[in-house]
Amino acid sequence: MGIYKDMQRLEKKRGQKVLFISLTLLLFAVGVVTISLNTGSISLPPLTVWKTLLGQGTSENSMILFEYRMPRIIVTMLAGIGLGISGAVFQGATRNALADPGILGINTGAAFGLIVFVSFFRTMEGPVALFIPLFTFLGGTLTALIIFVIAYDRHRGLIPVRLILVGIAVAAGVSAATLLLSLKLDEDTYAFTARWLAGSVWGRDWIHVLALLPWIAILVPLIYRRFKTLDIFVLGDEIAYSVGSHVTRERLLMLGMAVALSCASVSVAGGIGFIGLIAPHIAKRLAGPQHRYSLPVAALIGLVILVTADTVGRSIFRPNAIPAGVVVAAIGGPYFLYLLFKTKD
């Protein structure tokens, strides 16, 4: 009885700690979003921003805020959440600390889907933009299926090391096909796809928000409801089988939702990598290994990283804005090497 009470007490403390961390991240996110609303080619003072948000600004300020900056910021927020959650699922379902949608080649497949889309429609504007997540989802899903089939062992299931190696190889082939198709695009469309591949969110509007929002609103709660499944995967397949879990079916389901989430996110935000790698690791350091706590924290960290990267890229380096994907890669590359050497140890 005493042990049970001690466990309850520890669980309560952990919950309070995670709540404090989450609130801190939320406050930081609000601060970053506020700074992002203030900065740009036309600077708006904080007081002007708040007055405009309350409907008391000029028509020019309202246009700058609601037509240009707000959609871009909301896209980065949603995409950051999606990439953070999908990375946590990939790492949990494969028991691989280095798993990430970008490293595994899923983002490359999504890029191929986007190139196919623009090859047919030649635009990302207007209602047709609602089909972008569908094309990127199909491209990413096809790539994921190829990777999973090759990396799957009939007796051992998905082998973590093989998964990364196969992902790198398949990504190289898909990248070649993407480059071949992109060379056939006209100059303007090619310039747009180049910016997209670099992770630029320039020019996003409300139609892109509407294209991404349903995927985040549906898949994130569905994934969170199955946090216990991810906890069981971490313990190993043998233990998962012993507690009655259908390992193969559950793993494919979780990975399928993670693929859909990451593809939808990169379809609108661009080819941004490393967030799915960084956010889950930081979340586990702050909130612990239980996915009940680490998933929400990973989502908030992904949001903060991407909004911060976009704000830094378009404010510090003015007038030549740097794509958010480049800023994230500058942070994520060294962090990946750190994790790689740490894993070897």
Oligomer: single chain
Instruction: List the helices and strands in order.
Output: HHHHHEEHHHHHHHHH
**Terminal CA distance:** 40 Å
What average pLDDT do the residues reach? 81
Strand order of the largest sheet: 1-2
Spans of at least 5 consecutive residues with low confidence:
none
SS summary, helix count: 14
Q: Strand share of the residues?
A: under 5%
Radius of gyration: 21 Å
Provide the structure class.
mainly alpha
- Helix proportion range: over 70%
Count of beta strands: 2
**What is the makeup of the main sheet?**
2 strands, antiparallel
Shape assignment:
globular
Description:
The chain has 345 residues and is mostly helical. Helices cover 77% and strands 1% of the residues. It has helices at residues 2-38, 46-53, 59-94, 106-121, 132-151, 160-182, 187-197, 206-224, 227-235, 237-242, 247-269, 275-287, 291-315, 324-344; strands at residues 152-153, 157-158. The longest helix has 37 residues, at 2-38. The mean pLDDT is 81.
SSE layout:
Elements: H1 2-38, H2 46-53, H3 59-94, H4 106-121, H5 132-151, E1 152-153, E2 157-158, H6 160-182, H7 187-197, H8 206-224, H9 227-235, H10 237-242, H11 247-269, H12 275-287, H13 291-315, H14 324-344
Antiparallel strand pairs: 1-2
Helix pairs in contact: 1-13, 3-8, 3-9, 3-11, 3-12, 3-13, 4-5, 4-6, 4-11, 5-6, 5-11, 8-11, 12-13, 13-14
Brief descriptors of the model:
345 residues, mainly alpha, two-stranded antiparallel sheet, 2 strands, globular
What's this model, at a glance?
With 345 residues, this protein is an all-alpha fold. The protein is 77% helix and 1% strand.
